[in-house]
Write a structure and sequence with these properties.
alpha/beta; Purple Acid Phosphatase, chain A, domain 2; 2 domains; 5-stranded mixed beta sheet; 10 helices
Length: about 250
């Protein structure tokens, strides 16, 4: 038994949950980007053109999963750290892939498990080949140290800062969904990031419209008061936004 063990950072505090008055506001919610930088730029250009017809406040809500699987995770994070499009506010929510990356960096998830869920493509986007590092360094801890050295502190700080939910009196924006029948303030964070079946199959009537990503669909369709807009951009090449203006919604594709 080892006398000394490397300490790990304490588990992070619960992520922030935001409330916003969205009266007289046009909202553009964007589904899972997963490293698809070019598709994100294309979609933002279309959003800017669409928004010319509206006055008042305009907000882009990113629904999480900016990294992994697609080819340009690092550039996506750089982009989200920069200023939003002119005349827009931007709110970025956490997804389960951001949490998985942080869990690896903090020592709560093995490198192999993170790479298996898309972290390999994320490391490639930083110019890192973990297999090559493993061939150069015998100790796994040294490989992890080298990997972590190349990820900018600004990216890590951004991922740690992401709220997990944004709501108004009519809408909930969240990565995965909510557990029906439970108040928003009492929702478990793991559900907000990962829930599927219990959210989709519950007979409980939702009291607000829930706009989410996480579960890929070919074509977004309104299901009761649920609308998922993750269209699997890293495979389909199609990133999706939902525009909400008053009582009306419109889908916009990259």
């Amino acid at each position: 038994m080892a006398l000394f063990q490397r300490s790990r950072p304490p588990r992070p505090a619960p992520r922030e949950r935001l409330e916003m008055d969205m009266d007289d506001t046009v909202v553009y919610a964007i589904g899972d980007v997963h490293g698809c930088y070019k598709e994100l730029l294309s979609l933002e250009q279309k959003i800017q053109l669409d928004a010319l017809q509206f006055r008042g406040r305009k907000i882009i809500v990113m629904l999480g999963d900016y990294i992994d699987r697609g080819p340009q995770s690092s550039r996506v994070l750089d982009h989200l750290l920069a200023l939003p499009p002119t005349e827009f506010l931007r709110v970025c929510l956490a997804g389960n892939h951001e949490v998985a990356m942080l869990n690896y960096l903090d020592g709560y998830l093995s490198r192999d498990r993170w790479l298996a869920v898309g972290g390999l493509e994320t490391l490639f986007s930083y110019g890192v080949d973990p297999a090559r590092l493993a061939s150069l360094y015998a100790l796994s801890d040294e490989v992890d140290r080298r990997v972590k050295e190349v990820i900018p502190a600004s990216h890590i700080d951004f991922l740690r800062s992401l709220p997990v939910l944004l709501c108004s009196d009519k809408f909930v924006f969240v990565h995965a969904g909510i557990r029906p029948g439970i108040d928003l303030v009492a929702q478990d964070e793991q559900d907000l990031l990962n829930i599927r079946d219990e959210f989709f199959n519950a007979a409980y009537l939702l009291d607000r419209f829930v706009v989410h990503g996480h579960t890929p669909v070919d074509i977004p369709r309104l299901d009761g008061r649920r609308l998922g807009i993750d269209t699997g951009a890293f495979q389909s090449g199609r990133l999706t936004a939902l525009r909400i203006a008053g009582k009306f919604g419109k889908l916009i594709f990259s």
